[in-house]
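Researcher: Please predict.
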Amino acid sequence: MQKDPLERFFRLWTLKESVMKATGLGMNLPPGSFEVLPLAEGKPATILGRCWYAWEGQADPCRISVCTEEPFEKVRVSLHSEFEAGG
């Protein structure tokens, strides 16, 4: 886990946000109601009785987290940019 507290916060927050979106509940799933530390350690996590897997990436300057119920060996993640900075 990161030593920089701000970097750690953003890593854990993006994981929580990706879980909330993946469940379809969004902000109706309170961020404090579940843990993402197993996901941050590269392990699956059981949330709302379902098993979740996470992929994390960096697209400077943004941190990206994606959660799915399928192990990421079975999922393809591609990053696309459709805008130019300042445009």
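Model: Helices lie at 5-22, 37-40.
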